[in-house]
Design brief:
By secondary structure, the protein is of the alpha/beta class. 40% of the residues lie in helices and 22% in strands. Bound molecules: S-adenosylmethionine (SAM).
Length: 217
């Protein structure tokens, strides 16, 4: 299985633990270093990581991957590069694509509503090449000769006392300080977010994700 845009390798290591042979690739060396540490910690010999490079610059795969997994990669590539990637992958007979990416990103919202939270969500939306890439994926797959065999949209509505609250909570705390031009609204964001965290009636409707399985025709 190719894990394209594997990041720190959460999926690569979990699947390798279940016996899957993983080819891991990412453009960011620091993420690959984290993957390597996780691999060593768990004693996994069935993960091979490529040196950091753009996903479109990867060499021919050996052995042929039967599955290419992509979670939250295509939103950084945008339509044109995604199409090139799918065409590159379509060279491998019978390959299956497992895709997990954003769709309708700005529909995410905090209840009770907060203008500052919506501004932050808009800020993250603009940081990605196409945070609504999910809308374009079925047509791109069709053009590249893939047939969609399974699809669904998943979303999360997390209340402050739910375990799932930690996903947006950790995401915002980690990434808002790195978000460009976030100073004007980050204070208001955390005021509203922290108030919501104390409010048992609050909830966060998270960014919807389109999940697709597609097979080469
Ligand atoms: C949001 S992270 C997702 C990581 C991992 N797939 C996961 O779900 O945990 C996006 C990853 O895509 C990588 N990435 C983005 N654009 C890339 C490109 N053009 N070539 C290779 N990797 C890329 C980033 O370095 C980052 O590690």
């Amino acid at each position: 299985m190719l894990d394209a845009g594997c990041g720190p390798g959460f999926v690569s290591t979990d699947l390798a633990e279940q016996g899957v042979h993983v080819l891991a690739s990412d453009g960011d060396q620091k993420s690959l270093d984290v993957l390597d540490a996780r691999r060593q910690e768990r004693g996994l010999s069935n993960i091979r990581a490529y040196p950091a490079c753009d996903v479109l610059e990867l060499p021919e795969f050996e052995p042929n991957p039967t599955v290419a997994y992509m979670r939250w990669l295509l939103c950084y590539l945008g339509v044109e590069k995604t199409e090139t990637l799918f065409r590159n992958l379509s060279r491998y007979p019978g390959i299956r694509l497992l895709i997990h990416d954003f769709i309708n990103y700005r529909s995410a919202r905090l209840v009770p509503s907060s203008e500052a939270v919506q501004l932050v969500i808009g800020g993250f939306y603009r940081e990605m090449k196409d945070a609504d890439i999910g809308f374009a994926l079925p047509a791109i797959l069709e053009r590249c000769g893939f047939k969609i065999t399974w699809k669904r949209i998943v979303t999360l509505a997390a209340a402050p006392n739910d375990l799932e609250w930690s996903w947006p909570d950790e995401f915002f705390r980690l990434h808002i300080p790195r978000l460009k031009n976030s100073e004007p609204f980050s204070e208001a964001f955390f005021r509203d977010w922290n108030l919501a965290a104390e409010n048992p009636g609050a909830f966060f409707c998270a960014w919807p994700v389109l999940q697709l399985v597609a097979v080469k025709r």
